[in-house]
Amino acid sequence: MNRRQFLRNSAAGILAAPVLLRNAAAQEGPFRVKYFPIEAGVGLHDVTPARDGAIWFTGQRSGTLGRLDPRDGTFKLINLGKGASPHGVVVGPDGAPWITEGGQNAIARVDPGDHKVTLFRLPEKEAYANLNTGVFDKSGIYWFTGQSGIYGRLDPKSGEMKVFKAPRGVGPYGITATPKGEVWYASLAGNHIAKIDLSSGQATIVEPSTPKQGARRVWSDSKSRIWVSEWNSGQASVHDPADGSWKAWKLPGSNPRAYAVYVDDKDKVWLTDFGANAIVRFDPVTEKFNAFPSDKSGANVRQLDGRPGETWGAESGNDRLVMIQTVA
């Protein structure tokens, strides 16, 4: 079946079977797809589920953090400050959203109750880190990346921050924490992934099996394997630190461009494919794909996250959030 065929899902979320592509087969469907329009010009970028059922999202062009209520589609925008240009967002152990706020060269915390914004600014010598994404390790330390060639750590309790130079300079982008307690990041310009020593802060490079692959984002599965979205190669790859192995799969179609990656609670792997204007689901057991093309052109879904039974993405090109539910 043609990989660009649209799923005929309405904004109300009508049940639909997934569009099937080359090397694709039905898995656990059916699936329900639903879109949530956000204010035009917000510049959606990253998303993450809140503890209360809401969805947090960053508005890169508007300098805001948003909160969507999926029950009725209402949303609220929170101004992060003058010149703000947020990128990533995650929920910390304290239940608050933490944002890599590139416009103010700071890590921002937003109180989930009164929406007060607290900034933890990077050192002046790191005047423009081009902050990208962040993650919390098991001890509650926040680790973050900057494409200008840095990564760093922030202790939320003391406010102490330390910034490290990436071993190959520019490129640090996606970052993930594993169930084993490790922290890994991907370097888009550096074409590698790296493991951070949480004590010393030193990063050790691990070379993917495909040269110049453009490792963009990373996500750990339940076995602490590192899944990578490869922008240049159009592949999904996985590294197992336990034995040093790599495996890779080309996304379906003639010109895949894998941007984001997310591993759900059942270890199914979700990716965004700019080439197909779609979100793609990969089953590592069957090695089959499902694809969910957007019902609008130029979706450009830059990040994925989710909770059991739900995968969420941000259509930066259309300023909409999209939810894909796996229906039992």
Automatic annotation (TrEMBL):
Sample GO molecular function, one term: magnesium ion binding
GO BP annotations listed: antibiotic catabolic process; response to antibiotic
Keyword tags: Antibiotic resistance, Lyase, Magnesium, Metal-binding
Cofactor(s) required, per the database record: Mg(2+)
Family annotation (Pfam families): Vgb_lyase
Listed InterPro entries: TAT_signal, Vgb, Vgb_bact, WD40/YVTN_repeat-like_dom_sf
Summary of the function given for this chain in its UniProt record: Inactivates the type B streptogramin antibiotics by linearizing the lactone ring at the ester linkage, generating a free phenylglycine carboxylate and converting the threonyl moiety into 2-amino-butenoic acid.
PANTHER family: VIRGINIAMYCIN B LYASE (PTHR40274)
Subunit relationships: Monomer.
Protein name as catalogued: Virginiamycin B lyase
Originating organism: Bradyrhizobium archetypum
